[in-house]
């Protein structure tokens, strides 16, 4: 069964584009669906993630900031 990875993002966000690129490269090794969520389309997301984006959620665990490294995400995806 394929996992769904959620990427919390917003428009004109360079770090978000980097995170998306990283996830797209990981899709070659780990099959998953990626769902992008623009935090400005949902008030709860905006309040929760405004200062943290990009945020990647894998199986309910959220990664952001320094955690958005290939090794960290690979480990989470391999579980």
What can you see in these coordinates?
This protein is α+β, with helices and mostly antiparallel strands. It has one domain (3-77): 3-Layer(aba) Sandwich (Glutaredoxin). Helix content is 35%, strand content 28%. The chain has three helices and four strands, in the order βαβαββα. The chain has helices at residues 14-26, 43-49, 70-77, and strands at 3-9, 32-38, 55-58, 61-64. It has a four-stranded mixed beta sheet with strand order 2-1-3-4, with helices on one face. β1 (3-9), α1 (14-26) and β2 form a beta-alpha-beta unit. It is globular, with a radius of gyration of 12 Å. It starts with a strand and ends with a helix. The mean pLDDT is 94. This is Glutaredoxin family protein. It comes from Oceanobacillus kapialis. Pfam families: Glrx-like.
In short:
With 79 residues, the protein is an alpha+beta fold. It has a single domain (3-77), classed as Glutaredoxin (3-Layer(aba) Sandwich).
Described by the principal axes of the CA atoms, the overall outline is globular
Overall number of structural domains: 1
Strand order of the largest sheet: 2-1-3-4
Percent helix, as a range, is: 25-40%
Low-confidence stretches: none
Quaternary state of the chains: single chain
Written as H for each helix and E for each strand, in order along the chain, the element string is: EHEHEEH
State the separation between the terminal residues, measured CA to CA: 13 Å
CATH superfamily: Glutaredoxin
* CATH fold description: Glutaredoxin
Structure summary, number of beta strands: 4
Reading off the top of the CATH hierarchy, the class is best stated as Alpha Beta
Structural class: alpha+beta
Tally of helical segments: 3
Name given to the CATH architecture? 3-Layer(aba) Sandwich
Q: Which value, in Å, is the CA radius of gyration?
A: 12 Å
InterPro entries: Glutaredoxin-like, Glutaredoxin-like_YDR286C, Thioredoxin-like_sf
Protein name: Glutaredoxin family protein
Organism: Oceanobacillus kapialis
């Amino acid at each position: 069964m394929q996992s769904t990875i959620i990427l919390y993002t917003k428009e004109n966000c360079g770090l978000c584009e980097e995170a998306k690129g990283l996830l797209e490269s990981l899709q070659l090794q780990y099959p998953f669906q990626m769902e992008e969520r623009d935090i400005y389309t949902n008030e709860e997301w905006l309040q929760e993630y405004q200062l943290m984006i990009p945020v990647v959620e894998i199986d309910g665990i959220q990664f952001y900031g320094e955690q958005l490294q290939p090794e960290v995400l690979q480990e989470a995806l391999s579980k």
